[in-house]
Amino acid sequence: MRIATWNVNSLRARLEHVVSWLETHQPDVLCLQETKVADELFPHDPLNAIGYRAVVSGQKTYNGVALVSRQPLQDVRIGFDGLLEEDREAVVLGEQKRVISGRLGRLRILDLYVPNGASVGSKSYAYKLAWLNCLGRYVATQLEQGEPLCMVGDFNVAPEDRDLHDPQRFKGHIMASEQEREALQVVLGQDLKDVFRRFHPEDGHWSWWDYRSGGWQRNQGWRLDHVYLTRDLYDTAEDCWIDRQQRGLPRPSDHVPVVVELSGAAMDP
């Protein structure tokens, strides 16, 4: 089984890239973030034409997540309140379209677009920490249901210094502050593991390069797009890799796909 995550930074602007990538790599599920398209305008037809279907949660201009799959997903849940029905904060935070999940066989796939946070100490930063705190409650509730979980997305957090190109310069800044890192670790707890680091423990691996700083040309990036697996799935992983090639295409997203390969045992009952 092949599952991928990709912040496309506007699906309609990057649709040709996405369709080509699906045809080339044939993932079972592609989890998209920052689709920036309202549900009624989502481009289903080009995806259907190549054998994929999508379940979506989007809004105009900002945010937006989607699960694109070859087989129909079951028990689709949208927003934090799709699981935290009586959590008032979950309802408020769900106004921004950043959370969607679905089940493929016994496997639950959770697709997230974590807020950026703007700058440390700002209102957006406080929102990000509150959002991560709510995500912690959401994940804990999900894990109680006993489904193997694959949690992916743009987390807008570099978990460790090896996940950014210049740790001394950026440590303590947005996406690398201790509070963000600690909040993410609370979400992961003891049950979710970063599968990319199983195969690539060294530094120098990035999934995002800033448009504004010439980061791609200088290979100055961050690893912000992650795949986390529960322990039962972690043992079935055969590879996890970053498709850097996409960043070199004309009019690319500033993020590239991250792909996890799971053995058939991932679907065993």
TrEMBL record:
An example Gene Ontology molecular-function term: double-stranded DNA 3'-5' DNA exonuclease activity
Pfam families per the UniProt record, alphabetical: Exo_endo_phos
Coiled coil: none
Source organism: Candidatus Synechococcus spongiarum LMB bulk15N
Site feature Transition state stabilizer, where: N156
Any single biological process term in GO: DNA repair
Protein name: Exodeoxyribonuclease III
Cofactor binding note: Probably binds two magnesium or manganese ions per subunit.
Lineage, highest ranks first: Bacteria, Bacillati, Cyanobacteriota, Cyanophyceae, Synechococcales
Domain of life: Bacteria
Family as reported in the entry's similarity comment: Belongs to the DNA repair enzymes AP/ExoA family.
